[in-house]
Amino acid sequence: MKRVGVALLVVAVALTGCWEQKTKTFQGAVERVENGRISLNCSDEMNRGKRGAIDAIGYICDIETTSQTVYRDEDGSDLKASDFKTGEVVKVILTKAADFHASKPGKRYAETLILLHQDDVTRQDILRALGEKGLKLTAYDDPDVISLTDAKAQTFVLEDGGELVVYEFPSMLAQEKGWGTLMHEWESTGHRGGTNFNLQRFLLILYAGQNASDSTLGTIQQVMHNLAKY
Length: 230
What we know:
Strand order of the largest sheet: 3-2-1-5-6-4
Structural class: alpha+beta
Shape: elongated
Number of domains: 2
Number of strands: 11
Strand content: 25-35%
CATH architecture of the largest domain: 2-Layer Sandwich
Low-confidence stretches: 1-19, 51-56
CATH class of the largest domain: Alpha Beta
CATH topology of the largest domain: Phosphorylase Kinase, domain 1
Order of helices and strands: HEEHEEEEHEEEHEEH
Radius of gyration: 21 Å
Helix content: 25-40%
Mean pLDDT: 83
Number of helices: 5
């Protein structure tokens, strides 16, 4: 009987673990809006519950919309699908809880899409938040930094020998175009590239040093995630 009891307990724990992975609501920045579908950055949801440094970024989740999907802002005002633009932060309420970690998650349908108010983040906000997390940045003029149209670039050296470039653009759309230009530049010149962090009008590029630390990447990502929460 004790063995049966242990077996039942194990099954119950396993089922509880599966249930805890499911979520019915999450939020993320809009990547693109298509007919009958909205794609969101769901990195926060995918990394939820992970221990240690968060180093997995760039998860995109497709959410299906139907004629029954409700579009509104957080004050309750009705909106249309066309009001949801790339880069804006949206809270999603699904028609039923879904396991985002499933190997074959299937289609996920939106019951409600809520457009969240977005406070402007400044360069000072980013640098202050990085410093508060213990990241020491030393500004210097890098003659080899890749210049991007309409962007103000500031370069910093990190303690582990890495380099962080902060690009500030006049708009979110300009930032998206600048990021595309930078990737094209890397590809055309054979540049090894760096790790990108995108937030509103800002694009941060981390070039790892010889003594690169995983904690540096995790710290920057955590700061950007915290600043993106509204």
